[in-house]
Amino acid sequence: MKSCLQLLLVLSIPFFVSCAQNRVLSPLIDPDPVFSGQIEVINSSNDYVSRIKSWEVNRKNAGWYENRQGGVMLTLAIYFDVELENGEKVELGFGFNKLEGNRDLLILDDPNNAAWDRNWEYKSMEDEANFFFGDFDEARVTIGNNVSFHQGANPAFQITDIKTAMVDGVERNHIQLTFEGLAFGWYDPDGQYQEVYKFIEGSFEGVVE
Question: Is residue 8 scored above 50 in pLDDT?
Fold first, then answer.
Protein backbone atom coordinates (compact mmCIF):
# COMPACT_ATOMS: atom_id res chain seq x y z
CA MET A 1 0.00 0.00 0.00
CA LYS A 2 2.80 2.41 0.91
CA SER A 3 4.59 1.80 -2.40
CA CYS A 4 1.34 2.41 -4.33
CA LEU A 5 0.78 5.74 -2.57
CA GLN A 6 4.36 6.75 -3.27
CA LEU A 7 3.89 5.88 -6.96
CA LEU A 8 0.68 7.93 -7.18
CA LEU A 9 2.44 10.88 -5.57
CA VAL A 10 5.32 10.69 -8.03
CA LEU A 11 2.94 10.42 -11.01
CA SER A 12 0.91 13.43 -9.86
CA ILE A 13 3.90 15.76 -9.46
CA PRO A 14 4.28 16.65 -13.19
CA PHE A 15 0.58 17.60 -13.43
CA PHE A 16 0.64 19.92 -10.43
CA VAL A 17 3.99 21.43 -11.46
CA SER A 18 2.51 22.13 -14.91
CA CYS A 19 -0.53 23.81 -13.33
CA ALA A 20 1.67 25.99 -11.13
CA GLN A 21 3.84 27.02 -14.08
CA ASN A 22 0.84 27.95 -16.23
CA ARG A 23 -0.54 30.18 -13.48
CA VAL A 24 2.64 32.23 -13.58
CA LEU A 25 2.25 32.96 -17.31
CA SER A 26 0.11 35.83 -18.61
CA PRO A 27 -3.58 34.89 -18.22
CA LEU A 28 -5.89 34.28 -21.15
CA ILE A 29 -8.38 37.14 -21.63
CA ASP A 30 -12.03 36.20 -22.20
CA PRO A 31 -11.14 33.02 -24.12
CA ASP A 32 -13.78 31.33 -26.25
CA PRO A 33 -14.33 27.58 -25.77
CA VAL A 34 -12.77 25.29 -28.36
CA PHE A 35 -14.09 21.86 -29.40
CA SER A 36 -12.81 19.19 -31.73
CA GLY A 37 -13.58 15.54 -32.31
CA GLN A 38 -15.85 13.09 -34.02
CA ILE A 39 -19.21 11.69 -32.94
CA GLU A 40 -20.63 8.38 -34.11
CA VAL A 41 -24.21 7.23 -33.59
CA ILE A 42 -24.95 3.50 -33.57
CA ASN A 43 -27.95 1.29 -32.75
CA SER A 44 -30.37 3.83 -34.23
CA SER A 45 -32.53 4.30 -37.31
CA ASN A 46 -30.14 7.03 -38.45
CA ASP A 47 -26.58 5.87 -37.77
CA TYR A 48 -23.89 8.33 -38.77
CA VAL A 49 -20.35 9.54 -38.17
CA SER A 50 -19.64 13.26 -38.21
CA ARG A 51 -17.21 15.81 -36.80
CA ILE A 52 -18.01 18.73 -34.50
CA LYS A 53 -18.51 21.89 -36.58
CA SER A 54 -19.74 24.71 -34.30
CA TRP A 55 -20.93 25.31 -30.73
CA GLU A 56 -22.22 27.86 -28.27
CA VAL A 57 -22.82 27.79 -24.53
CA ASN A 58 -26.38 26.82 -23.61
CA ARG A 59 -26.27 26.93 -19.80
CA LYS A 60 -24.16 26.30 -16.70
CA ASN A 61 -25.15 24.71 -13.38
CA ALA A 62 -23.49 24.61 -9.97
CA GLY A 63 -24.59 23.07 -6.68
CA TRP A 64 -23.43 21.88 -3.27
CA TYR A 65 -24.59 20.17 -0.10
CA GLU A 66 -22.97 19.10 3.16
CA ASN A 67 -22.76 15.49 4.26
CA ARG A 68 -22.95 14.22 7.82
CA GLN A 69 -19.19 14.08 8.15
CA GLY A 70 -18.82 17.79 7.44
CA GLY A 71 -17.60 17.41 3.86
CA VAL A 72 -19.14 19.35 0.99
CA MET A 73 -20.27 17.69 -2.23
CA LEU A 74 -19.60 20.10 -5.10
CA THR A 75 -21.19 19.82 -8.54
CA LEU A 76 -20.44 21.80 -11.69
CA ALA A 77 -21.68 21.38 -15.26
CA ILE A 78 -21.69 23.21 -18.57
CA TYR A 79 -23.79 22.46 -21.66
CA PHE A 80 -23.30 23.46 -25.31
CA ASP A 81 -25.51 23.51 -28.37
CA VAL A 82 -23.34 21.71 -30.91
CA GLU A 83 -23.80 21.42 -34.66
CA LEU A 84 -22.07 18.60 -36.54
CA GLU A 85 -20.75 18.77 -40.09
CA ASN A 86 -23.65 16.62 -41.31
CA GLY A 87 -26.16 19.18 -40.01
CA GLU A 88 -27.21 17.22 -36.90
CA LYS A 89 -27.63 19.31 -33.74
CA VAL A 90 -27.03 17.93 -30.25
CA GLU A 91 -26.60 19.19 -26.71
CA LEU A 92 -23.17 18.22 -25.40
CA GLY A 93 -22.11 18.80 -21.80
CA PHE A 94 -19.48 18.12 -19.16
CA GLY A 95 -20.15 17.64 -15.45
CA PHE A 96 -17.93 17.21 -12.39
CA ASN A 97 -18.55 15.99 -8.83
CA LYS A 98 -16.11 16.43 -5.94
CA LEU A 99 -16.43 15.67 -2.23
CA GLU A 100 -14.33 18.38 -0.62
CA GLY A 101 -13.36 17.45 2.91
CA ASN A 102 -12.02 20.89 3.87
CA ARG A 103 -14.89 23.38 4.03
CA ASP A 104 -12.45 26.16 4.98
CA LEU A 105 -11.21 26.20 1.38
CA LEU A 106 -14.65 27.18 0.06
CA ILE A 107 -17.05 30.09 -0.28
CA LEU A 108 -20.55 28.61 -0.24
CA ASP A 109 -23.41 30.80 -1.50
CA ASP A 110 -27.20 30.48 -1.83
CA PRO A 111 -27.80 28.13 1.16
CA ASN A 112 -31.57 28.67 0.88
CA ASN A 113 -31.70 27.46 -2.72
CA ALA A 114 -32.17 23.86 -3.76
CA ALA A 115 -28.94 21.85 -3.47
CA TRP A 116 -28.54 21.67 -7.26
CA ASP A 117 -28.87 25.47 -7.61
CA ARG A 118 -26.22 26.86 -5.27
CA ASN A 119 -23.09 28.72 -6.29
CA TRP A 120 -19.72 27.99 -4.76
CA GLU A 121 -16.07 28.73 -5.34
CA TYR A 122 -12.71 28.01 -3.81
CA LYS A 123 -11.12 30.94 -2.00
CA SER A 124 -8.03 30.25 -4.11
CA MET A 125 -8.18 29.51 -7.83
CA GLU A 126 -5.00 27.50 -7.38
CA ASP A 127 -6.77 25.28 -4.82
CA GLU A 128 -9.65 24.85 -7.25
CA ALA A 129 -7.21 23.83 -9.99
CA ASN A 130 -5.47 21.30 -7.74
CA PHE A 131 -8.30 19.90 -5.62
CA PHE A 132 -11.35 20.15 -7.89
CA PHE A 133 -10.25 19.94 -11.53
CA GLY A 134 -7.03 18.15 -10.66
CA ASP A 135 -8.66 15.62 -8.32
CA PHE A 136 -12.39 15.31 -9.13
CA ASP A 137 -14.24 12.21 -7.93
CA GLU A 138 -16.55 11.74 -10.90
CA ALA A 139 -16.99 13.29 -14.33
CA ARG A 140 -19.54 12.75 -17.04
CA VAL A 141 -20.05 13.62 -20.67
CA THR A 142 -23.68 14.03 -21.71
CA ILE A 143 -25.08 14.17 -25.21
CA GLY A 144 -28.84 14.45 -25.61
CA ASN A 145 -30.34 11.81 -23.29
CA ASN A 146 -27.13 9.78 -23.14
CA VAL A 147 -24.28 9.89 -20.65
CA SER A 148 -20.77 8.55 -20.19
CA PHE A 149 -19.57 8.29 -16.55
CA HIS A 150 -15.95 8.43 -15.40
CA GLN A 151 -14.81 7.67 -11.86
CA GLY A 152 -11.92 10.10 -11.60
CA ALA A 153 -9.42 10.85 -14.34
CA ASN A 154 -8.64 8.00 -16.74
CA PRO A 155 -7.41 7.60 -20.33
CA ALA A 156 -10.97 8.10 -21.65
CA PHE A 157 -11.49 11.38 -19.75
CA GLN A 158 -8.66 13.48 -18.42
CA ILE A 159 -7.76 17.11 -17.88
CA THR A 160 -4.41 17.61 -19.55
CA ASP A 161 -3.70 21.24 -18.63
CA ILE A 162 -5.05 24.12 -16.54
CA LYS A 163 -4.28 27.78 -17.23
CA THR A 164 -5.33 31.07 -15.68
CA ALA A 165 -7.97 33.07 -17.54
CA MET A 166 -9.65 36.41 -16.92
CA VAL A 167 -13.36 36.32 -17.76
CA ASP A 168 -15.11 39.68 -17.51
CA GLY A 169 -12.28 40.76 -15.22
CA VAL A 170 -12.63 37.77 -12.86
CA GLU A 171 -9.92 35.10 -12.51
CA ARG A 172 -11.04 31.64 -13.61
CA ASN A 173 -9.49 28.27 -14.38
CA HIS A 174 -9.24 27.44 -18.07
CA ILE A 175 -9.10 23.67 -18.57
CA GLN A 176 -8.01 21.48 -21.44
CA LEU A 177 -9.47 17.97 -21.51
CA THR A 178 -9.68 14.97 -23.79
CA PHE A 179 -12.57 12.51 -23.92
CA GLU A 180 -13.59 9.39 -25.82
CA GLY A 181 -15.73 6.29 -25.40
CA LEU A 182 -19.42 5.40 -25.38
CA ALA A 183 -22.42 7.30 -24.02
CA PHE A 184 -25.50 5.22 -23.19
CA GLY A 185 -29.05 6.19 -22.26
CA TRP A 186 -29.51 7.16 -18.61
CA TYR A 187 -31.85 4.19 -18.15
CA ASP A 188 -30.33 1.99 -20.85
CA PRO A 189 -26.75 1.33 -19.66
CA ASP A 190 -26.26 -1.58 -22.08
CA GLY A 191 -27.52 0.22 -25.19
CA GLN A 192 -30.33 -2.24 -25.88
CA TYR A 193 -33.25 0.12 -26.47
CA GLN A 194 -31.93 3.43 -27.81
CA GLU A 195 -29.08 4.95 -29.77
CA VAL A 196 -25.51 4.88 -28.48
CA TYR A 197 -23.07 7.74 -29.05
CA LYS A 198 -19.36 7.19 -29.48
CA PHE A 199 -16.84 9.98 -28.90
CA ILE A 200 -13.66 9.73 -30.97
CA GLU A 201 -10.60 11.89 -30.22
CA GLY A 202 -12.72 14.51 -28.45
CA SER A 203 -11.07 17.56 -26.95
CA PHE A 204 -12.28 20.69 -25.19
CA GLU A 205 -10.64 23.89 -23.98
CA GLY A 206 -12.49 26.50 -21.99
CA VAL A 207 -13.78 27.91 -18.73
CA VAL A 208 -16.45 25.69 -17.19
CA GLU A 209 -17.64 27.79 -14.24
Answer: no
Number of C-alpha atoms within 13 angstroms, CB side, residue 156? 15
Instruction: Please tell me whether residue 133 adopts helix, strand or coil conformation.
Output: helix
State pLDDT tens for residues 37-54: 999 999 999 999 999 999
Helices marked H in 101-152:
125-127
Q: Are 55 and 80 in contact (CB under 8 A)?
A: yes
pLDDT for 27: 86
SS3 112: coil
Angle at 160 between CA 48 and CA 93, to 5 degrees: 45
49 with 195: CB under 8 angstroms? no
pTM for this entry: 0.85
Q: Tell me if 107 sits within 8 A of 53, measured CB to CB.
A: no
pLDDT, tens digit, 9 for 90 and up, residues 96-113: 999 999 999 999 999 999
3-state secondary structure the chain: CHHHHHHHHHHHHHHHHHHHHHHHCCCEECCCCEEEEEEEEECCCCCEEEEEEEEEEEEEEEEEEECCCCCEEEEEEEEEEEEECCCCEEEEEEEEEEEECCHHHEEECCCCCCCCCCCEEECCHHHHHHHHHCCCCEEEEEECCEEEEECCCECCEEEEEEEEEEECCEEEEEEEEEEEEEEEECCECCCCCCCEEEEEEEEEEEECC
